[in-house]
Amino acid sequence: MTDANQNSGTTIEIPEEVKEKYPDLVDMILKSISMDDDERKYWFSVLPVMSDDQVAELRDILTSEQKKIKEIDKKYDQNTDEAPEISEEDLKKAEEERQKKRQERKQAEAEHQEEVQEEAENLLSELEDL
Predict the structure, then answer these.
(1) Where is 13: in which H helix or E strand?
(2) What would the pLDDT profile of 38-47 be if each residue is shown by its tens digit?
(3) pLDDT of 102 higher than 60
(4) Distance CA 61, CA 75 (A)
(5) How many whole angstroms separate alpha carbon 80 and alpha carbon 7?
(6) What's the distance, Cα to Cα, between the start and end of the chain in Å?
(7) Which of 35, 70, 111, 119 could staple 39 via S-S, CB 3.0–4.6 A?
(8) Nearest to residue 28, comparing CAs of 84, 88, 105, 125?
(9) Which residues contact residue 31 at a Cβ distance below 8 angstroms, ignoring those fewer than 6 apart?
(10) Residue 3's pLDDT band (cuts 50, 70, 90)
(11) What is the distance between the alpha carbons of residues 19 and 48, in angstroms, rounded to a whole number?
(12) Smallest Cα–Cα separation from 68: which of 40, 106, 28, 103?
């Protein structure tokens, strides 16, 4: 089944299993401003094979991102007539945080890919031994 990504207006395939098992993560992934559509597609495709610890870590990362965004929104409330200036230091901190989160996701992705590759090699080896 496809869902429209409200951030970009594109459609992304989200497996029914993922929608049913992780509705909160589906929403957080779709709303994440630090992910592009390719990253969203990746997470939706690997969620069914992720361990509980990996899912919990992803949930923690996305929850942290949402909290940071709320803090920034609160600090720079755009409903006022006079929007405060965003300092270069705040911009730098926000960018560093985004870079850190991206690096953490890439590391988690690489670790997961290694695990998948190792499992595949082990299965092939077992099949060859038969």
Answers:
(1) strand 11-13
(2) 999 999 999 9
(3) yes
(4) 21
(5) 24
(6) 38
(7) 35
(8) 105
(9) 6, 7, 66
(10) low
(11) 10
(12) 28
59 close to 28: Cβ distance less than 8 angstroms: yes
- Which bin fits 9, alpha (ψ -120 to 50), beta or left (φ > 0)? left
Task: Phi first, then psi: give them for residue 5, nearest 5 degrees.
Answer: -85, 115
| Cβ contact 46:12 at 8 Å | no
pLDDT tens, residue by residue, 51-87: 999 999 999 999 998 888 888 877 776 555 455 567 7
Whether the CB-CB separation of 44 and 29 falls below 8 Å is answered with: yes
Determine the Cα–Cα distance for residues 3 and 5; give it in Å rounded to an integer: 6
Which pair of structure tokens corresponds to residue 16?
A: 């029914």
What confidence score (pLDDT) does residue 53 get?
A: 92
